[in-house]
């Protein structure tokens, strides 16, 4: 029990340190590369518990009992001053600790005050799940709780006056038996898909793509908290679009023009073929520097948003990553066309220090 309490206290300390320095973890991509299933390894300074440490036994000549005036009491010795060139500050020792994605999502929600998502789609389809919720006097032998059964028998012995401390033999009888009780619970069965689209033309450099990588990690972390089955799809585009895996999504660099509609058309095709809006919660995210090829293509994008995406998805999110090569016009066109339409979320991401605010923009509606 004491070990478990110490483990819980240590975990609480770790989570507190992550909360205190949360912005650094959000903007640092190191931990994202250390995912293992549903856990992430986070580097933190080593936490030392204060303890007494005994130093080496001192030379007897340095132990004087007097006022220090005698030769034996000064204890200065001739072994050197100890003032070398190595410096007098200890280095910071780092350790890696595991924290679950669920705990990261909780911290993200607390720091950004994110509302709980209200899923749409197949929320009226209920999935049954068995939950062991208590103790019952009857049940199958495979669910008998031996500790509770022994306690019940011991109580009976003591209350009847038959308990002998010198011969503490306890024999449970049928009425002492205790079993785990099963309760069937029903939970809404909901499914979700996140479709990431990113402009990979020459104006989107490594720093811009790293910002997108960090944002997508935290977006996924939050959505997984609300949807146990989360699909993720990736689309890259310049003048044409194609679906890729996650690794290719963040490492591809292209050159040439940008036709945003190519990504929107492919995203529409994926949704129509694989994700019926009546059954799925759909979250498209598009990241670009806002430099589209032509006004005509922008008008096509606006039409696709009006006629297909906004009526069929939970929310459509566009993040404009600032680049010295991009005009940023696409964001202005969206702001003008969809003023106060909460089905579309727009966010301007000027650098890494704006990532937290952008995540709040995207997830703060609870849709």
The neighbouring-strand order within the major sheet is 8-7-6-9-10-11
Give the strand content: 15-25%
Rg from alpha-carbon coordinates:
31 Å
Q: End-to-end distance, in Å?
A: 42 Å
Structural class, from secondary structure content?
A: alpha/beta
Summarize the structure.
Among the domains are: 126-186, no CATH class; 191-363, von Willebrand factor, type A domain (Rossmann fold), CATH 3.40.50.410. Helices cover 37% and strands 22% of the residues.
Question: What is the strand and helix layout of this fold?
Answer:
Layout lengths: L1 H19 L1 H6 L7 E2 L2 E7 L25 H4 L19 E7 H12 L13 E11 L9 H15 L18 E10 L2 E9 L6 H21 L3 E8 L3 E4 L1 H6 L8 H15 L5 E9 L6 H18 L3 E6 L7 H9 L6 E6 L5 H9 L4
What does this protein look like?
- The protein has 367 residues and is α/β, with parallel strands linked by helices.
- It contains 11 helices and 11 strands.
- A 6-stranded mixed sheet has the order 8-7-6-9-10-11, with helices on both faces. The protein has a 3-stranded antiparallel sheet with strand order 1-2-3.
- Strand 7 and strand 8 form a beta hairpin.
- It is elongated and about 95 Å long.
- About 4% of the residues have low confidence.
